[in-house]
Amino acid sequence: MSSCTELIFCRDTVDPAFVTRTLELQPTLSFNVGDVVPIGKIERPSAVGLWKLRLAPIVDTETVEEQLGRWLALLEPKSGCMSHLRHIGYSPDIDCRAAEGSLALCVDPEILTGLGALGVALSVWLYEGPVSEEGLP
Asked: Would you say the pTM of this structure is higher than 0.70?
């Protein structure tokens, strides 16, 4: 599995069409409150609105840290739009899933500061790699 990052707006008040118009970005996935969506093996009406955009990796080996730099480059020119969304109660986060076996994440202070200025939270998923018989990775 390669690294994956997604910008997400998810809340019971999120209107995905409004996010699309505001940011002028097309989501990878979106649905409204009440839309019937698959949850596991069943389908049921969603209790939240969701707008999600996955950043396509440039190469399979691109790291979460590299993708966060690209998110910053994409979102900084839209800082006014991001501020407007936050002002009306939309809380964006970037969901970060590191490549399998990656237990380390080191994000440059400039990236963290930039994302913080945009009001974007980070949600980081790290996966434990296999352990050898000696207990060492």
From this structure: yes
